[in-house]
Each structure stands twice: as structure tokens, then as C-alpha cells.
Batch of 2 targets.
Target 1
Amino acid sequence: MEQYLAYGLLEGSILALFAVGFGLRFRASRFFDFSYGALALVGAYAHYSANVDFGWGFGWSVTLAVAASCLVGTLLEVSIFGPLRRRSAGSLVLLLASFGVLLFMENGLGLLFGPYPKHLAVSDGFRQVLQIGEARLTVMQVALMAAAILVQVLILTLYKRSELGLRLRAAGSDPQLSEIAGWNVDRTLLVGAILGSGIAAVAGILASYERSVFFGQATDVVLMAFVSVLVFGDREVWWSAGGGLLVGVVSSLLLIVLPSTWQRATVFACVIALTLGRELGKRIGER
Amino acid sequence: MSLLADIGVQILLVTVVALSLDVIVGDEGLVSVLQAGLVGVGAYGFALASGAGGGSWVVGYFVAGGLGALVAMISGFLTARLRGDYFVLVTLGLQVLLLEAFLGWRSVTGGALGYTGIRQLEIGGMDLGEPWWFFLVLPVPLVTVAALVVYGVRRSPLGIVLHGTREGEDLVDATGRSILWLRFQSFLVSGALAGLAGGGLAQYYGYIEPRMFDVDQSVFFLVVIILGGVASIRGAFAGAALIVLLGETLRLFPISNSQVGFGRGMIYGLLLVVILRWRSTGLFGRFDIWDAKR
């Protein structure tokens, strides 16, 4: 039980980071941006290439990965989502466009880096096993969990306390009022897209140490982030983090009673039921 | 020559799925990401009924269409009050759920390894599995039936009311018609056609696996109808032909099968973005996807 809980907390903390970036993008631009999964993969592959293929140090590899993901996120916002939004595209059209971007980039990365998973090697020190109560985790796993939590705290503090956070929240809740207040909404959303891309890259790198880097993960990552955001409904970004943690822990604990093949299906069924129940409740409330 | 027949089979089977999806997108104005799952339900239904179930392939098609319709109706019931983004997202969730069921229900579907030994097309002991025979005996009648059904629905009172819901659901609701019942009917037609196409796909390839019915595949079917043009039978044919031919063109290059697959995915994704950005009515569309229910 403790072991499942420990794995759940590890998976959940990384998933929570994915969900924070995805939720932040959703809260600011009011559409579910599925290209987020591809941005995480850009970060993961860029880190792998710099670290393994070119022999760069960890710090430089992470910097390059975050920069690459932010650059791609900026290009997407400037060339696709921004122009669509200026033509008054609804959230549905933006969502469909993001599906197209995900499909294009996921396959493009598969073409560039090949169809097989790529594994990152870690030093012996990180492979040492720590006994925490009844659970056993490696030093690497504890470090990943700590890094994911630290980045989330930093992002959520920035979102809550800084003027950028205020502008992002304002752009999401009432873009017209933001414009009247003198804030350029397009610029705010661009900064939001860059910030989201950076978070996606960091989460992608952490996930690649926990598992591997594989082109098919883009869709998986974004689906799990999307489910995490949906758990608590259309609420502030910190709820997305809570959703991610909850999904990770529940998914892991489900393994006690279910075979692993039914793990994701059960999580999805629960979240669909929650979403439908909430929508139904809203409709009844409106009547 | 058999390559031409193979391309013909692919185009017509994709057209049947496109027509089935167009009932939801074109006539109801709802963007569904569930279609590959429904095709998968039909494919597995066909494989089980005609293979392990010991029935003939004709029985297999009845089961494929029936199961597709049943699962689609359940989905229609679950999403009866949803529209816009939330409809897309819940259909996406249901699509993932179906895929996980194909993967997880190993004793029935064979899991990730897939399902082999699907009954071939034969009439009176004569094997018709060869592409030209298959093309003439199955996809041609199937696509004709699908086009006639969709045409019939569009000209029927049901079609007219569905177009009414597309323009304003609340107005149709106010006339006393049940939106739930309308959605049941449209999903029934869509699911049955998608299931039949799944049966055709299973029988043609003789092998099915969950990957053939994943989220990317559902997006692929959306690309087909958005490219050809929504709410148009001509558009479904044109979209399917163009997409399949574009995908097949990649085979002319000296690249591996996985590279062909990646190249196709990139083309489909790029096409979706380009159409949405510059020509949202597609080639022959009679409904602008930008006006889909929000």
C-alpha cells in the first residue's frame, strides 16, 4: 500500500506540473490547447539530444530544452492561434487547430528522432534506493518529485502574486475589460503561451527521467493533463495541480485492486462521469 | 492493378466513415472525436461474430452495424445536453475509454497484439478476398448505401429538424421536440454506418489492433470531412480521395513504413490547421466549421 502511494505521489507530482501548465494556458486563453503535449515532447527531445547526443551538461541541456519549447510555443501563438483569435475564432476552432498542431508535431518529432523510446542514463548515486517507511524510492525519484513540487510552487506564486499573473487571470476572465484597463491582451496571451511552453518543457524533462522519451507520449501527456484539469472543473490553476496529484495517486492505488490494463480506462470513466454530472447539475441549476 | 483496387477500397471505406461522421458534424453541428472508436467497435464486433462466434460474414456485418449503433446511442445519451468544447472533450474521453477497452479486454479483443483470423469475403465457396473482387462486392455497395442513407436523412423531416438544432438548439427545444431523441436518431445512423465501415476494414485487412482506432485516427476522420467540406456527400468523397491519395503518394519515396506513417500524420495535421485558417468550408462544404455549436 505504502509503495503504491509513494509511486502515486511521484507520478502525481509530475502530472500536477503538466496540469499547471495546461491549466494556466486554458485559464488565460479559454481553450484547451492540445499542442501542449507536443511542446512537452519538444522539451524532452531537446534535452535528450543536448545531453546524450552532444554531451552537454545537465544545466545547459535543460536551458536549451526550455528555450526550444518556448520558441516553438511563441511561433505557434504568433502564426496560428493569435491570427485565428483575431479573426474571432471560437474556442472550438482553436481546439481543432491545436489537434492539428499536435498531430503535425508529434509525427514530426517521431520522424526526426525515430519510433523507438529513448532512455536517459543516470549516475549510480541517483540509483541508490531510499527506504521511506514501508516504501522504497530511488534518489532520482525523490529528486524528481521535489523538483516538480518546487517548480509548481514557483509558478503558482508567480501566478498569484505578480502583475503578469494578474494580467493572465484578467485576460482569461474578461479580455475586453483587460483592454479597457490598458493591458494588451494579445501580448499577455503570448507571454502566457511562452510561460506554458516553458512549464511543459520542464515537466517533459522530469517525465523523461521517470520513464523515457517517446513520440507517442505527446497525446498521452496532454490527455492526462486535460483529465487533471477537468477533475475539479473550471477553477483556478492551483486546482489543476490538485487534480493532477489526485489523478496520479488514485491511478496508482487502483493497481491494488485492478490489473494495469484497466487503470487508465477507470480514471477516464470517473472523470467523464464527474464532468457529465457537473454539467447536468449546472443545467438543472439554470432551470 | 491490385494497387489501384487497394487504394479504391481505402478511399471508399474512409468515405463511409466520413459520411457517418458528417451526420454529427454537418447535420447537427457538433464536432465529435469518437468516430475511430465506433469504427473499432464495428471491427471487433465483426471479427468476434464471424470468427470466434462462428457466424457467416453477413452476420458479422449485422453485428458490426448493430454494435456501432448501440455504442453511439449510449454516447448520444451521455452527451445529450452538451455542445461546443465540452461535447468535443467528452467524446474525446469516450474515444480514449473505448481504446482502453480494446487494449484491456484481452480475452475478447486480443489486447495490444490484435485480433487475427478474421473471416474472409466469400460467396458460395468462392474466395473474394482479392482486392478487385473485394472492391466490387463490398465497399462499392456499402458506400452507395451510406450515401443514400445520409442523403435520405438530409431530405427527411429528421434532417430538417437536425439542421434546425445546428442553427439554434434552443429554438428546436422550444417547439417541444426532444433534443435527446433527435440525438439518439442521429447517433444511431452515424454509429451504424461507422460500425459497418469497421466490419469492412476488419474483413479487408484480416487483422485488427487497437492502434487502428486511436485518437489520432479520430482526428484523421475529422480532417477528411473538414477538407472535403462539411454537410456535403460530394465533400466526403473528395476529402477521402484526396487524403488517401496524398498518403499513398508518400509510398513513392524510398522511406520506411514508419516514416510513411509519420509523414502522413504530419500532412493530416498541417492540412487541418491550413483549412481552419484559410478555407474553413473545405472544398465543397455547405456548412462552415467555424459556425459549429459553441
Note: The beta strands of chain A are 129-132, 135-138.
Target 2
Amino acid sequence: MSAHAISRMTYFITLVALLILTVISFALAQLELGAFEMPAALLIAGIKCVLVLLFFMHLAHASIGSIVAVLTGVIFVAILLGLIATDIGTRPDPGPRLPFGGVPAVQAPR
Amino acid sequence: MPNLRPFPADHFGTAQQQAHAATFGMWVFLASEILLFAGMFTLYGAYRMVYFDGFVEGIDHNLQLLGSANTVVLLISSFCVAHSVADLRDGRLGLAKGMLTAAVVLGLAFMTFKGVEYADHFREGIFPGGRGAFFQDHTTAGLAQFFTLYYLMTGAHAIHVTIGIAVLAVMALRIHRGTLVPATFHQLEIGALYWHLVDLVWIVLWPLFYLTGTH
């Protein structure tokens, strides 16, 4: 089984790395990074997810079948997010927007 | 003596084969969970692109310290659970139980913080669907969408945390009663995978709802 390959020390180092990344992410949020804020936060979150998957969840030593299952999920998420982002990002400005519930209201331009 | 089910079960050739099948099944389930949350993440991304100002205002309104404390709480609990799997595997039953209990306590702490946060929002009149007094005074477009997604996504996550706490508590109890033993530690490993998924989802939710505002 997969857990044989990972020592308790590795778990501890992984936890420390995760906590350091959390502090970095928190510190970056206090700075005004503007357009880089979201990509930076998501990049750190992505690194943290990979650490949890590889070491806490033993994916580094899991069977090919398990890895394929995870990759399938991740790839479909990427397709979903990517295509919707390109759709919405390339639409012309839709003009005044409806508030929640769809009742029209006067709204100041952005 | 506790009543143990035969291991491996009749339809498996070896114990390793049964453990492998069970772990693979769990990963397939986790992949489907990722897709469930992906739908919500996509909604978030789409609405954020359309209502950027409302989302930034909403994030600024959330309690950043409480959300960040919850991130640390879940990360440590994940470490405890990973540790307990190794402990059970090596026959250190007391330590395995202790680590699981610590994870359960941390999970409860997470839910308490979340409850405090929800209560704070309710007091201010922030409810799902853009209902409540808050939205009378704060009319930035997208605020209602932001807080509806906030309740939907953190709520779905909180349901998972609740189930995870129950799973870990049952595992600790089974170790205590002697029905979960080192030979079948893969059962704990599968429960642990679920808890780590809960951690993974929160790792992504945290920046989306607490960090990427203007603060």
C-alpha cells in the first residue's frame, strides 16, 4: 500500500511548507498587487494543493488508476473553467446589468 | 473479541488487491467531488469577471483573520490525519487515536469559527439571494451574487467538513474498540483521503473569499 513510502518527517515538512505558503499568501494579500493579486493567490493555492495531493494523500506513490482518476477530474475542470473564462472575457460589455432576481434597476456605469 | 469481517473478502484474491480496489474507488469518488465543486468555482469565476467591483467589496467585508485562522486549522488537522494513518499502519494505536481525536477537535474548531462568521453576517442582514438589510445600504452590483456564492460554496464545504468529522470520529472509535486494526489500515487511509479533500477545497476557497479584495 501507498502509505509505506512516506515517513512522518515528510508529513511534518509538508505541513511546515503549507503553513509558510499560507503566511506568504496572507502577506501578499496585504499588499496592493492589483491585477497580479488573483494569479499570485491561485498559484500559491495550486502549489499547496499539489503538496497535499502528493504527500498527505500519497498520490506520489498511488497506482496509475488513481492518478488517472484525479487527472481526469483536473483536466475536465480546466476545460470547464478555461472555456467559460474565454467566453465571458471576450464578450462585449453587456451594458446595464440586472440586479439579483432579474428586476431591472437604474445603475451607475462602472 | 470484536466481530471482524473477513479480510480479504471472498471476492478478492489478496488483501492487497482489496485495499487497492477500495483506494481506487475512493479516488474516483474524489474526482467526482472535484467536479461538483468545479461547477461552483466556475460560477464564481464567471460572476467575478462580470461583477468585479461587487466581488472585491464583498471580500473586503469578510472576516479575513477568521478565514485565515480556519486555513491553518484545516492544514494542521490534515497533518494529524496523515500521521494517524502511518501510526495505525505501524501498530501505534494510541497515537493513531490521539491524532484522529486532535483532527476531530480541529474540525469542530473550524465549524465553530464558521458559525461565528455566519452569525456575524446574519446580524448584518446578509442572507443568500441578496436578501436582508445589508443589501439596502450596499447596492454595488454583484454583492448579492458574491454572498449567495459565499453561502453556497462555504456551505457545501461545511457539509463536507461535518461528514468528515463524523468519519474521523467513527474511525477513532473503531480503533478504540479493536475493529480497525493495522491489517486493515487502508480503511483509515480512505477516510483520510476524504478529509484531505475537504482541506484541498478550503485551500482554494480561502483566496477566493478572503484574500483577493483590496484590504
Note: The helical segments of chain B are 15-50, 52-61, 64-89, 93-124, 134-137, 143-177, 185-211.
